[in-house]
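G., before I forget:
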Amino acid sequence: MTDSTMTTRQKVEASMRRRRAAETRFRLYGMASVLFGLLCLVVLFGDIFSKGTSAFSQTVLTTTIEIDGDYLDITPDSSESDIMSANYDGLIKRHFKNDVQPKGRSEARSLFSLISSGAGWQIQSQVLEDPSVIGKTVTVDLLVDDDVDQWFKHEYGNDSGSVRLSEKQLEWITGWIESDALKTQFNTTFFVNGDSREPELAGIRGAITGTLLTLLVTFLLSFPIGVAAAIYLEEFAPKNRLTEIVEININNLAAVPSITFGLLGLAIFINIFGVSRSTPLVGGLVLTLMTLPTIIISGRAAIKAVPPSIREAALGLGASKMQTVFHHVLPLAMPGMLTGTIIGMAQALGETAPLLMIGMIAFVVDVPGFINDPSTVLPVQIFLWSDSPERAFTERTSGAIMVLLGFLIIMNTAAVMLRRRLERRW
Amino acid sequence: MNYSTLLIALLIALGAAYFLGRNRARSLAGQGESMHSLPTHYGALTALWTTLPPLLILIMWVMLEPRIVDALLTMQLPEAIRTASEAEVRLALSKVHNIASDPTMMGQSDLGSVAAHLVDLEQRAAILKGGVILSVILLGVAVTWRRIQPDLRARGEVERIVRIMLFASSAIAVLTTLGILVSVLFEAVLFFQKVSPIEFLFGTTWSPQVALRADQSGSSGSFGAVPLFAGTLLISAIAMFIAVPVGLMAAIYLSEYATSRVRQLAKPALEVLAGIPTVVYGFFAALTVAPFIRGIGESVGLDVSSESALAAGLVMGIMIIPFVSSLSDDVINAVPQSLRDGSYGLGATRSETVRQVVIPAALPGIVGAVMLAVSRAIGETMIVAMAAGLAANLTANPLDSVTTVTVQIVTLLVGDQEFDSPKTLAAFALGLVLFIVTLALNFVAIKIVQKYREQYD
């Protein structure tokens, strides 16, 4: 049968198989794309969680140690500064020397390196809390070094040695494990300490406080300014060239790369206005400028959604334009504005690049107390830690990311709930 | 008096003035007077006149005080420093500030007397500042108190002031753009006085390290930015290669094929990808994707850099997928149903309708969405800062390490900056290029998207 002898119907039917196959293929591409996106999400979360969950546990060594008042040269009546400056590191070293009996100086050194350099502070804070323990024997859970911590959490039990620990060190650790002295507990240090060079002492409290202070400044500035700008543009602005420029400007600013806001902060806030570097104040100022477009755009949408009949009713009863807006339109638009603000704040919470420019990348051990103390924020802390070669820091980076994602989930859920609860259909 | 005390004083004054004004209006009304406005308007008026002028004075003070103090101190500096270069004067001034903040150093330096003068100046300035602010507050209360009379049109005045404040708030957005432009432009002009724009835009060697001593070789550094532009384009191209097909197909599937149940679940889940902080993507790219790609490359005998452009581009593409898909979703949904119905009526299948009717109709909007996504990719910083390299290689091989404009801005500006070295200023020149390119892309893209939306409205 040749082409010319086919009827139209036969031609169409012959092509249907090809067209149906093309249809199925097209549909499969679409489905594959959606699945690829979802798969990326699952892999990303899975990767972070599998690396990060172990950051929330920390290995400790339970040991009974005598707080030897003679060695430390203190009594329960000593002044606080004497108790502070006593040699607790020496006490711990002496204790383990007697306990394990290492041979020679180098063995002793490799023994001491198993215990965290923060162990002395642990004893110190216990003595400061209750000076009557001086002279008594107490049981303490001493932090161990991050190498021991990593080995115990990840490699112990699957028969592999460790590249970071020597045979002799592993022998001592096995001895501790056999006597049930080594165990893992919830890692409170991670939540109560500031940054540190030692992974087992490093925590995110400083970064979280810095983040909260920075977001506080951002919120206090961007919410009123954003709401005011939205009101002006939607309710009062004359429809002229100037207003149009302002509108185009805001839309463009929302899409400008965040790093340029950092350049602005550096050149204007720090160099011209002399705001001090690395502080939540300057961070908050930069993030305010960055989040304002988001808040203004969502605020305008919320005002637009209020039906004109509300305004006309108020005006008809003799309210001025200003009274109409502040007494009637604004309260009705508020839920939408708050939702936009929370989303803007969530953006600010995750922002890193502009804060690097204005010095919030400094190594800050102390927890900042106020908006003009040097500090860092959670995303920058993540950036700093991710650069550290220690495996324990990789784990803590993932842990910090989980905390950051937790905050973001809470904020976005709050935004969604707020919208659901307060949404009104006119 | 420091600034926080003054701000608290202003807050207290705000509350007190409101109640004073309101009560005065009420008591006048109680005496049988017929007031023009409501008592709250008189309260608001008093509060505004009490707090706005001192607030403005305070802001001016913050900006001017360091300048005036430094000018006064410069006159106190020894003749030798004062007549030397500007840089030396600045150095001496910062020394003086350091000494003044630490009293133990006061006696140890020849600048001690100047530092003592600074301490004295600061004390006097603080007293003066407190005095001026408090008297302006009191003046505001007193004047407005006297002005509160039955015929004072308080409502009109309050509303005019509030309107000006609303306008000022919306002007901040414009000021921000101007601020970015001026700050970047100013430093970039300084840079171009030292390095010619031709060399910057067309030179092919980038090594911004400036030698410490003048006699070292390559002391000027070289600032040819072509490798950075090429690296940025390479990584953005890889990202778009992932994001555009996947994002577009996902949008088509979700808007044309998916049941509303699937759509309701999959769309927010995809948008979660857009909400993840970029630093998290950077960590994922540097610690998971890059070693993974390197491992695959090694197993097939390819030499893959541990900071390959491919890893950074791939992860950036994943980040941009929801951006492309939600923007395209909007424009695809804006195509009127009648166009689809017409196509179905002629016997076309769904995919034929999508390819031959919906996509051509939505094309301008999709182009706009892709342009916005490109601008996003070019400006993305954290992923490349963590996963891409620092070496400025001019290569098109995605397995090599390349660097980008944003990475260089971060590297040049993190740490101590000297604003007279071309190394620091180069970051602002790069920032200028970045700002202009992204602004142009956004401007055109937003125009296209808006125009397109109106077309079917």
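The CA atoms of residues 265 and 386 of chain B lie 32 Å apart. The two ends of chain B are 59 Å apart (CA to CA).

More on Monday.
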